[in-house]
Specification:
CATH class of the largest domain: Mainly Alpha
Largest sheet: 5 strands, antiparallel
Helix content: 25-40%
Radius of gyration: 20 Å
Number of domains: 2
Number of strands: 8
Structural class: alpha+beta
Distance between the termini: 16 Å
Order of helices and strands: EHHEEEEEEEHH
Amino acid sequence: MSSILLTGPAVEPLSLDEAKIFLRVEHNTDDQLITALIVAARLHVEAQIQAALITQSWRLTLDGWPCQGRVLVRPGPLQALIAARIFDMQGHAQAFDTQAFVPDPGASTLSFMPWVLPVPGRVAAGIELDVTAGFGDTASDVPEPLRHAVRLLAAHWYENRALVSGADQAVVLPATVAALIAPYRMLAL
């Protein structure tokens, strides 16, 4: 299964003003850099926990239906299933009813009865599921430890902008950031 971002978040979990206060930056010279670091930090945290911090739209592609009747939605947490399509042998998409799925936001899964769903005609990427995922639409919906992880990571990168190599290489993920996001990691069993 692969996931393709359709629509990114409308806001970041940390505003430029919040970041500048945390960094104790009083000038506007680095605004563009700080904004880029906030986005990069959010993306890094999202990759580490396999979850979207702010509401986003994603397309999941599958080759076939899982036998157990359950699709694990990554990135999570699942908010809703928007659309479902299946492709025939000629590559034509046909939409089918999303009511065939039971969303479980807590487990970030879509459950279904695999024997009642149409079989894709295309061997690879024969199924597309469009979903919305994320903790919510605003920064306040994001758990505070994750917002603080974004804040600390952006600050770390702001303070350590020089390129390093070899023995001098900086730690990619500071220990404090790793500790903050650890409870939110989605582990594969």
